[in-house]
Amino acid sequence: MEEHENRSLEERLSELEQQVQAQGRELRVVIQHLDGVTGGQVAEAGHGSGQERWRGPVLDQPEDAGDSGEGRLGMPPGLQRLRNGEWWFNKIGIGLLLFGAAFLFKFSIDQNWITPPVRVGIGLSLGALLVLLGLRVYGERRAFSQVLLGGGIGVFYISGYAAFQLYALVPYAVAFAFMVSVTLLAFLLCFRQQGISLAHIGTAGGLGTPFILYDGAGSVGGLVLYTSLILTGACAIYLFKGWFSLLLTAFAGTWMVYFAGFSGLIYGPESGYLQHRPVMQLGTTFAWVVLALATAGREVLRARNPHRWQRPEPGALARLFFADEVLWSSVPAHVLSVAAPLVALWFTQEIWRLEAETLGWVSLGGVVFYAIVALLVCRLENGGRVHYTQAITALLLATLALVFLLDGDVLLLAIAAEAAVLHHLSRRTADRILSVLAHVLSLWVIGWIFARLLDGVLALALGSGVAHQTGGIPVFNLS
Length: 479
Prior knowledge:
By secondary structure, this protein is an all-alpha fold. The chain is built from 19 helices and no strands. Residues 37-76 and 465-473 have low confidence and may be disordered.
């Protein structure tokens, strides 16, 4: 019986060895096949199957490299793209098209060749022609298609601006509806044509529409509502596509719009600070929530299902500044996730002109909120780092709360205690970010103590006798 079992075990091991050898041979064949495929073909296949990955130092031909048939190049990806003529044409082509359209309008105005309605009609026709041509050549020349589509969207924006601001051919409602339609068209095309440039143009044009069509009237409430809709659309595209540069455009553009509208630069100080503070705070809170959900939500979804929520192919700048795929795709999004509540807190203080103590309690509320979010996300994600980002955000808000609520010696001791705790945690967990934060706080404490000692020495040198008056150590009894 034992001999039969031993024989059976030996047979199983033999079969397993044969299977492993066969799989190894198949894997070598697949690797040799991939090595013989050009970078453009690999990118094309990965784009369709969802299995494309950037492999760090092993660089493939970029997707927009045209049909030259070149294989891999042993050089950095940024330099590889700089050698490609179509890459340059793709980047500067949209700008040249927009410049040419603007010059055409200006030249026709100066020469009085055609009437204003005809000028606008020419602009609309040119934009429609560029969009149709871009759709036509998409299957063969994707990079050139993106140039045409982006140029067509830009010409539409210029035509809408000219029809309303330069010639007053249409009322504000019609011009605004047209600009919103152009923004929606850009968003739809970016989904259909996989064009990140279209998403950028649509987001920037959409956020700039209230200022492009500004005629001296308007309301902060309308600005908040419209900006919130554009931000939601851009973040939805980021959630599905993972284009970090689009999230950065939406982040920077939204806060710039709110800064211009809330500070009274556009609608005047009375319509900003005195009458619409609740609406302004609502817009600030909504922007913070949407940006936080977009950045954290996609990372959670990707951690739970990496095949469905894959990272997109990095661009030239990402390849130049980041060493691997994880850094370029995760770190910038996590940084914006931390920055969003800090910017929202600053806007809250500017809207309500809060005292330091009140702002400190608001920061403590943020600490509690982000601590709870970190605990919940830790249970939802599967080996991700989103909960860690929320915890770091809570830590930063806690430090700000200490600064706002405390002062003098108590604040110094509190910051020193926090630095000591962070040093201990960083050593236990070997965490670099905690170590950096701990060193920053330590340098802050050391600089503070040094400044107090220096002030005490200077006071004694000038004969003020501060140390004798207080009867204590200058560091803790300088007041």
